[in-house]
Fold each of these.
Amino acid sequence: MKLKALVPTGHGINCELETRRALELGGFREIDLVHLNLLSRGEVDPADYQCIVFPGGFLDGDDLGAAQACANRIRHSRVNSERLIDRLAQFIHRGGLILGICNGFQLLVKLGMLPASDGDYTARRITLTANERGRFEDRWAHLAVDPKSPCVFTKGIERLYLPVRHGEGKIIGPDEETTRSLVESHQAAVRYASPETGEPTMEYPYNPNGSHEAIAGLCDPTGRVFGLMPHPEAFNHRTNHPHWTREDLPEEGQGIAVFKNAARHILSA
Amino acid sequence: MAHRIDVALKLNVPDPSGRRIKSRIESDLGLQVNDVRVADSFLIDRSLTRDQLEFATEELLRDPVIQDASIDNPISLPFDWLIEVGFRPGVTDNVARTTREGLERTLGVRFDAGEAVYTRKLYFLRGKLSRDDVERIARDLLCNDLIQTRRVFLPGEDRTRIVVPKVVSSAEVTIAEIDLDVDDAALLEISRKGLLALSLEEMKTIRDYYRDPAFLEQRAAAGLGRRITDCELECLAQTWSEHCKHKIFNASITYLEDGKSRRIDSLFKTCVQAATEKIRKDLGENDFCLSVFKDNAGVIRFDDEWNLVMKVETHNSPSALDPYGGALTGIVGVNRDPFGTGLGSRLIFNTDVFCFAPPDYEGDIPPRLLHPRRVFEGVREGVEHGGNKSGIPTVNGAIVFDPRYLGKPLVYCGTGGIMPARINDRPAHQKKARPRDRIVMVGGRIGKDGIHGATFSSEELHEGSPVSAVQIGDPITQKRMTDFLLMARDRGLYSSITDNGAGGLSSSVGEMAREAGGARLCLERAPLKYPGLQPWEILLSEAQERMTVAVPPDKLDEFLELARTLDVEATDLGEYTEDGCFTVLWHDRAAAKLPLDFLHDGLPKMELQARWTAPVHREPKVEPPQDLTPTLITILGRWNVCSKERIIRQYDHEVQGGSVVKPLIGAFNDGPGDAAVLRPVLDRMRGVAVGCGIAPRYSDIDTYWMMASCIDEAVRNIVSVGADPDYMAGLDNFCWCDPVRSEKTPDGEYKLAQLVRANQALFDITTVYRIPCISGKDSMKNDYHIGDTKISIPPTVLFSAVGIVPDVRLAVTPDFKRAGDAIYVLGVTRDETGGSEYFASLGNVGNKVPKVTDPHRAIVTYRALHAAMREALVASCHDLSDGGLGVSLAESAFAGGLGAEVSLAELMLEGVSRDDVALFSESPCRFLLSVRKESQARFEAVLAGHSLAKVGEVTAEPRVRVKGIQGATVIDAQIGDLKRAWQAPLGT
């Protein structure tokens, strides 16, 4: 089977090339970078792919809040009489995989595709807002992976060390119960962790943005839609690691495991 | 009627941006507030129904999880004072642009001409504040009156009145003619009043040209009178500006020193260009330069399939007036240079170097200037937004502090790009517009923003400095444009490309006209942000995010169709010709017809005189204490030395996934990197190293050695991380104070001599190091002059270096790696404390300026060091610069989380007998290295014959201990204390 992935581009997306590289290293054979407008116009159909990765960036400058304007674009783009967002929902129902990284994760949350706890992929239940410190930060973060999570992208991974690079990464719900239930349902697949204990933490800078329940990434109940603020594609080779000149590390970057899991899932499905 | 939608965080949701403003009110203004909350207000100047407004609010503007909204009724949060800040008419408002696009999409409506969206920020303040306090908060923190307006409200005051900041222009749109047949005084007055920055001689040259009967006949045939049109005069003023023509660098200079005189015909030609030519000849078949000095950026070969492009610009004058907009425009502006080089390159890194007055400056702030803290924060934020939103990693930079930068902050922005060596079987670094190619403008629309930017930056900052020169960049419009153009490039849809920067269309089309042999531009077709612009304004506007391309006629339809598909505006504005003229039409009527040879080569050469007398400073009598630990702690906490982590963290320095050596390094990701290394092509292990040198303090003694040190430091930076010293290129960016003697500048001859000496050093050092300059820029009027106050910056050069790292897996970082490793210092330490951080900490300048004493020897040493790195023999490498060995040793130690024991007696010393000099002298050409036990013999063999000294050992105990030349302990400090001192001033 030929592994085909779709990587949307345009309107401020800017991590498409390293995302393509990570997919390549993960085992995908055909990776198409497609401008969002070509998706909106129906010139490219998501149904032709098994996996869609929304890369990081600053969609529409994040001018109305992270990915907010682009979520609006996807909700209001029509391919003939069909909405683009419905096409994406069908893609999920048919078993496709969707990964959103950083701005791509923000987009999935703003669209309502995550956490989609009740199976409705079009209603926003939580949001991502300004970091506790009120500023953009680039720093590496330790992540604890929930071994019981249905997330197909994190299967078999115990811990991750990845860069975060965002100003609006704090997950917050309408009430504390909402975010707590995401942990209980194991949809909180990755959480910011203390490097010493490996446990989820609210302590800055290990939790770089003050995210509730230290949630760094979420999946839907099927585990096939996953989004996270940290950048697995930016740890594609050991020389990306901040300590690579100090430690012996495997040649392959740790982030590639996420993409390999996606490929493995598709092949076994 | 205009509608208003306000959006604010729900009261139970914390507001980090409000909290950040609260802490700045407290720290910067010394006022106490209890709480600050921020809301957004959208003014929609178009009629919409209540249903439409409600639908748009829910679908577009409000986040239902955390925000409340209020339609056509000002939102109410509890407050004691409310400050509303909006933009002045015509100022770029990116959020408004996104909102308008969203409204059109969501509601299926169009905004017609004159209809628009405007945004404002609402700041709700709680606390006991007087009206004066609130006015201060508004004026000195929240609002820049140049580009914004503000209103202050008390609770209960009527806030419903809506003022729409629409651009209204009642002036008749016309092409004016100017009579140049007037006396000298009147000529100068035309230049002054029109902000043309043309000298009397230049005005006379233009006047005389317009007396030539043959030329007048040609004009008559085109329907033009004998008088010059405003379009023509403005176009000439832009093209001939110091900013565009580098008149001082191209002047004939008589240089006087010690009673001897020497003539220099163009510093640019005889020093900068000549050096590069010599190096290229010396490199022979190993010459890696592809395009130098002729395009928007320099191009070198990266490998057989890829070329590397780089450019560094300054954006000082706009940043002085509006730090945020100036710096943002600086970064997105320099992005367009490598983007518009050859057939276009993809942008892979940014660099930024700032020069400010110290943040703790307590003196008076002269009129029109802003407090250095405000400049710092505004510039930082501008570069953050410019770089991060464009998806380009900011990988390297520096911040230099000196009180004289109060007069003009310096904002250097650099950008690198990468292009395939060949595109559609054409060498990608070349371009040529051909006759009959269409002139197509792509990207943003034209407004009154940035008019006279080129001439404005060719003058000192004065009372009449135009507000319109300030602009705000729009990274997303630019990103859409560059995404589109790279696609068009790969499909072969255009034959040439350049950016619209200084001088706008007059400069971009005027330049490209030289490639084809002429151009005919139809100005009325240009898309405008709002009506009412004069034709000359359209021609000159520096409105951002625009490129001009030459599209072959048979590719035009495909080009425009692709642009439409990707939501990018592209407009056919005319065609390139071969008639030797730059012709501008306004509704079929000639508005300008300028022969290209006059436009580009008609400028008379300046004749200048330079006179060098070496300054003599008081030689300080310093009695060093035996314990130098407090001295080291003081120097680590100096503005120029301290950690810049707080700023670096706010820049994305690893987007694009190829980061290898980051700006923050070491065991805790917080040590200082010497230079950046990145992999621009992700499936290859070949890397690019980027570093820089800047040393304005040495200019107070001798600019020759200032320049030499800059080049040497930039080179050592990149060699430290593993760049091949036989494969590196440089970029020279001069920022000077006015070096032309006049009433305003009585010491112009000395300042010009400083410039000559710096250029001499550039030739001398680059040719020996074989680092060709591939691009450069100069900014010559960095003075402030209002009333009796004159502030001139210290002559400042930023020398940027890019190098090739043959295999990034062999790159090296400065942090000590393990206890037991041997510590070496490579290079000779001399008594060179003049202009040092050490002397500055004692309030002295001194005279013994650091010298690159033997550059021939130095470069051979760098090659040997690189050979050792290729054999993976070096565990850590740090260059020695500000603060000398003491600072580098502390940095390598705390970055590695390890201690060190070092003896100064083991150093290679020349003429040094004092411990303070040995520790803090800033002699260039030196490195601090550590080497594993098992590699030491081989390492010493590879470096045999070079000035290598084993000075100590890395220790597990986290203390830095240094023994003096006589054996006494001179430094004994916990690395934690050293690091705290280093991190304290700017924080993390």
Amino acid sequence: MEFLTELVGEKGVVIVDADLDTEAAGEALRSACNSLRERGKRTVVLDLSKVQIINSYGIGKVLTCYKQLKAEGGVLYVRPLEGFVKETFELLMLDKLIPTDRA
Amino acid sequence: MSSDANREIKTVGIEPESLSEEFLISSRQFSEQGISLSVLFKLELDGLLIADEKKRVTVAFHEALVNAHEHGNLELKSEWRDEPGVDGLDLFSEIKKRRLEDSRYAERMLSVKLYFDGTFVVLQVRDDGPGYNPVELRESSAGADSASHGRGLKLIRHFMDDVDIREGGRLLELRKRLVQAL
């Protein structure tokens, strides 16, 4: 499984086109974030518009991306936060940690 | 979770009130094949479990199974996710890989029972691990928003109506009411 990435100005965007509820999906997310960081991107946006479910597999890798970027002075954003994903982020207070990209 | 072979499945009855399935699966099998919870699918078809409620139940049940597998049988510690391992993996992933190759851990069993009693959908998961102290776990994960531990249980407690941890942490029972009392 692989997630596509896009470069939009200073931002790198990960197009997450599957639910983040398996180890494979989590690994694909981690790999995509790493790819953007290796290309010098320090502002990364996770496009979660197609994600219906997220569980600890996905949450763990989102946090890995967040921590790696933060350690390098970078920032992780998500967009959009809706439905069940929003509920889960708010429950775990991840929305306080990871801002929503309004662009 | 995917369909799999090599599992014992018992599906009892065709009426929603008597839906039940049981699995006895090793952690190695769980890692390779997963488990398909067809009772949830049947409840969805019957209109008893829909939309976001289905997502909440699915996620909570998944977290319970993975907790039993990873923290129970494989004895993996959540804080290892924050520590570096080898070959670009975190320590958790590195040790998980090794323990799935070690039959002392990988052949430990997960006993899973999922049923609908006409009102509640119930998941019981029992692992063969050494158990844990739920109070200690709750205290260690309090306020740890970006730390890697305790999130699974937090999701379970939020999405379920009842959570019962017994047998020293080796048996977890989750209950979700699907039918309101009249």
Amino acid sequence: MADRGRGYEAAVLGAGCAGAAIAYSLARRQIIPVVVDTVGGETPAPASPVASVLRGNTSDVRLATRAAERLPDLQDAVGPFGYRRTGGISPALTDADAAAGQARAQAAREAGLPVIWLSRGETLRREPGLTGRLTGALYCGCDGVADAVALRRRLLAATVRFGGAVYSDCGYLHVVRQGVGFRITAGREELTARRLVLASGELLQTVGRPLGVELPLRVGRRRICITDRVAPVLRHTVNGIRQEPSGAFVLDPPPLAEERSATSIINEVETLRRIVASALRLVPAVEASRILHAPQLVFAEPADGRPAVGRLTDDLFIAVAAEDQAAMLAPMIGEATAEAVAKHRWPDGLEVWAPHRFAAAASPRASAGVQDSTEGS
Amino acid sequence: MPPSTVDPDGAPIPSLADHSRAGGVVERHVVVVGAGPAGLAATGEAQAAGARVLLLEERPVLGGRAVLVPGARGLTEGLMRGLGNAEVWRGSPVWGIAGRSLAVLRGQRIETITAAAVILATGAPEVMSQFPGWTLAGVFTLEAAWEALRAGRITAESGPAIVVARGEHAAMATRLAERGVAVTLVAPARPNGAPAALSVISTAPVEARGTGAVEQVVLDDGTTRPCRLLCIESPRVPSIDLARLAGCPCVYQPQLGGWVPRYDPMMALHGPTDGLFIAGDAAGVDTPRTAAESGRLAARAALRILGLLADPEMKIAEARERLEAAAQPLRHAARTALMLGVMPDDTVESWAPPADTVMCACEGVRLDTLREAAVGGAVTPDALAAQTRCGMGECRWRRCGAPVLRWLSGFLQVPVGRLPLPAVWPPVRPLPAATLARPDLASDMADG
């Protein structure tokens, strides 16, 4: 691993999708970054979260649309990470759902977004694998899937090729302000950096507090189910259900509002039942498959569900988003943050990420106070 | 003084009445998982003591490996008679465990069972070491070959056959010869009493070739032989999925077959839950008789904490003496060391098959793919799985887990015992989605 005197222009804390994308964009701008993470960051899922545009709100859909245009270029630049455009369908099963969906499609059309309403017949023609009980569906052509693990790996490898360094799996991480920059203790490494990007998801609370950043995070767990291979029936991403090119279904429902304890077998059975039942409602062919894996993924996202990306102070930046959003929005998060770090400029149209929701506590004074107490101990 | 199986700081194991709960949970004093010699002995012991015991077996037949491979049939038949009228669910794989509750697939239904004590006797299946062509049809482990032979799937036309086996297991070759199959035995020496028709060589096969099924075998000296049935005695690896799912720490001990859970001298598993016991080859590969005795010991230890064992100290001391008498001395020493808290083994392996060998049969992942991922930084089983799909198929690392860890040890020059094991999640056996579809799904859909 490159050792550049252990002093870097910028340090990115967190080697997830957002962190890797930022590091890559920084490295391309000749701001040589170091990426630090406490864990290896691998999940046992075979491919990765769905980037379901239809789950997001209007501004996220707009950003995701822009990101979707850039993902193929990014894939050409850093190597394949399994991005493919699937198109997303969100079926309605009742007349009430259909009315709500039509209103949403109308609003989206007025906002200039590529979301349309399909009638029942049109939906079944595009996606014959869906249940015949549906009453219509929202459709977004730019929805897609990307392999988050490969995306992260490709971006980090490209960062290293540009001269950046990656210290993942370092186990221990502590950051304090020092002079005009930051001192980072990562495992056995002592690093310094002039600017700091917090992209560390669930770590953010422990790492951010000494710096005066209090981000209300929602940390939770969600199960996904991966089945064996069955005859291909599903072409699109349907509410988090998709079929890999190999034929395996990935059932990735929205996380439960309340987390159930994994220590009860009844809850285990109920969790799997809930996932399968919600998939069966829409895609009857799931019934013929067998569940081979049901890994649990840990997610951390801002408590209000919206990505938080941008500048907190002159030398402190933040980039936190739910994992599926981070993978899908990676080009946008990376470019915007790198632009902000390099030129103190924030690209137009990205104010929606409102980093200043969390900036209040991040004043240098607040962090200076914390630094004193840290150094004193 | 035998150590207590109950954590002194933890709550005592509750009685059966404390477990009573609504919701279709089946309650038992003792549940035994796996009906090999260990599970049969444990069930018989618990039944004789008057406990409400349930024996769960994945296969449709009882006896486990002991009814397939000759040498322990008498023992197994005796143990089956000892079951009395204990309740037995055959063809019922356990796919999940949390605390002392199990999730079982029984036919097309999922049952959840809560017990005051759970004895895991999940055995140790043979795991073939990967070599070029091992995934072809007609390449069997010894265990699988016995099963095929007993099921009548091997006939005179199945040959020519090559059997790689040592010692008593060379009997496979003799049995095949009796069936009229042309057999070559690969063994260091000609076994006593081998029929004259049996040819014996000492050069091991290194590759199987064929399209779909094995047609010829390449030997170590470069010569080839026609072969349609290749049977290879393979190392046995303890099945530890359920113990790991229950949160029990495991340790690598090659003398015991690989990774084994940590347990105490009463066969009680270390970990977050009291009342979990292990028995048989899952606790370290040994003879069938040793497995049976360890099952007996585990059952008596479980019965003691349930208050169902009369004169417990004497009976447990007796079971431990019988276990020691039955065990192979070296393995008994390894097991004793494990019980006392031995450190992980520090062996660095140097095994690696040719680069184009398929390592993960389910997903067709080759060694060079794994090597490429490892060079790129994927140096744990989970990272390899995330990048290559290795271990993500139907068998869930059962065939490739131990070999991949051995290879990774040599690749990284790190002792096997210090490598992380792949993550384990329920279901540990494939679970048909149809069994999870609620009976009331139709009404749900009407509501939704």
